[in-house]
Amino acid sequence: MFRNQYDTDVTTWSPAGRLFQVEYAMEAVKQGAAAVGLRSTSHVVLATVNKAASDLSSHQRKVFKIDDHIGVAIAGLTADGRVLSRYLRNECINHAFVYESPLPVSRLVVRLADKAQVCTQRSWKRPFGVGLLVAGLDETGAHLYYNCPSGSYFEYQAFAIGSRSQAAKTFLERRFESFNTYSRDELIKDAIFAIKETLQGDKLTSSICTVAIVGQDEAFHMIDQKVIEEIINSMEIKEDAPADQAPLQEEDKGSEEAPMDI
Amino acid sequence: MELQTLAMKDATIVDDGTTERTSYPYVTGTSVIGMKYKEGVIMAADTGGSYGSTLRYKSVERIKPIGKHSLLGASGEISDFQEILRYLDELILYDNMWDDGNSLGPKEVHNYLTRVMYNRRNKFDPLWNSLVLGGVKNGQKYLGMVSMNGTHFEDNHVATGFGNHLARPILRAEWHEDLSFEEAVKLMEKCLLVLLYRDRSAINKFQVAKITEEGVTISQPYALKTYWGFSAFQNPSKGAVGSW
Question: In its UniProt record, which GO terms are filed under biological process (chain A) (predicted)?
Fold first, then answer.
């Protein structure tokens, strides 16, 4: 989109009924490194690509634990993401202090959305430049939400945000209908596969990929790098064919074939 | 967050720089007894409100349902109980307004009350009550107590006031897991009878309330049969030593 006379202030409408500053904020999310989320009836998985600023630096942290039952993955301005994670953690812990029980995911997401909306209606503020995939479990089941800078939020079975997320979304669109029946391990595998789609040619290694999971009997936690390594290796044994020929059911419980020299 | 402000702005702070504190209760209710049974929780209390040593009000409902999953019984200052009901009414209202399939269960309500009671105690302006909170949610039975200083705990059977001294020993001896409703009522009436005989603020008009997964039922007030035909009551001054 191009510069125009209605995009200086977040509090200025365009004649077409758009708030350009908010849309520019959503652009920032699209430029960030990819993040995907998938949900079954009992688990939710988040996976992100960790870009490093240079070969010398460490990788950006994009997945945050909010509470034992909730975690988020961010795309966009990581600084904004960190601040929002602190807010989310605060809301969860305050609720747990008063009510001795976990804050329902949908209620947390609404508070976050309302906070984001405030920044779209104050002339002295700017919208947050980060999109969040909120994954959590409460008594109504497993949930995956996407919160965007505009203050809107949606619930998803699976979603991808950030750069080249369309490739991941295409992959997920083909398979999401069976996610509710997926086992925990199948869900993780598909999350990594979706991340692989966003890399489009770049090598997928466990060092640039973070995977986290939350489940009914599993507090939110990052999955160990070694485990991710194993899954990636077993994936690469299976195929190197392009994504649209991937089989609907993947069963690689163990590598029966010998690893190829890639 | 909106609810905490409601509880806080009702604290007695006078604008001329002085503060006040609650010193003693005026209209009080006596014991409440609660116990878990097979399908849920049963709670009983008499319907009396005493004004000091006068049994002034005879139809005070001291057990109320809270939301879909809980029952609250209170002893102590009746006006403070009514205030607590106001707070909880607002709490449940906001909870229902979310309309999202989540609801506050007895555990959450118990904890909220603990926070309110403790915070008031810290301001030297307590809500002068001992509260019994019972309920069932998703098959889980819950029974807990909070006192005016914020002490709270859960147990299979609880009692407030005189009930602690007269009813709990009976319950400790005779309560067991999975009582049927009839057995639980019988055990409850046994405790209530002892309290009626021995607690001077008890009146012979009781309500028994039960809560199960299906919902709440509070009985109409009824009386227990008492026996006063002991021979020692026939001529009470028979063996008395007179002074004149």
Answer: ubiquitin-dependent protein catabolic process
Q: Give CA separation, A209 vs A132, A194, A195, A224, in Å.
A: 17, 11, 8, 11
Q: What is the 3-state secondary structure (H, E, C) of B150-163?
A: CCEEECCEEECCHH
| A101 with B102: Cβ contact below 8 A | no
Instruction: Name which residue leads in pLDDT, A60 or B71.
Output: B71
Phi/psi-derived region of residue A138, left when phi > 0, alpha when psi is between -120 and 50, beta in every other case: beta
CA separation for the pair B91, A115 (Å, rounded):
22
B22 is catalytic: yes
Residues forming beta bridges with residue A95, ordered by sequence position: none
Rounded to a whole number, what is the distance in Å from the CA of A191 to chain B's nearest CA? 28
User: Does position A246 have pLDDT exceeding 70, yes or no?
Assistant: no
Mean pLDDT of A139-166: 96
- Partner residues linked to A215 by β-bridges: A43, A218
Could you report the per-residue pLDDT of B16-67, keeping only the tens digit for each?
777 777 788 999 999 999 999 999 999 999 999 999 999 999 999 999 999 9
pLDDT on residue A252 = 44
In this predicted structure, the answer to whether residue B185 has a pLDDT above a threshold of 90 is: yes
Cβ-Cβ pairs closer than 8 A, A with B, add up to 33
Instruction: Give the Cα separation of B171 and B186 in Å (integer).
Output: 12
Read off the pTM. 0.86
Length of chain B: 244
Contact (CB, 8 A) for A156 and A145: yes
Provide mean pLDDT across the span B79-100: 95
How far is B109 from chain A, CA to nearest CA, in Å?
7
Q: What is the mean pLDDT of residues A65-78?
A: 96
Asked if the C-beta of A93 comes within 8 angstroms of chain B's C-beta atoms, the answer is no
A241 in reach of chain B (CB within 8 A): no
Check the CA dihedral B74-B76-B80-B82 and report its sign.
positive
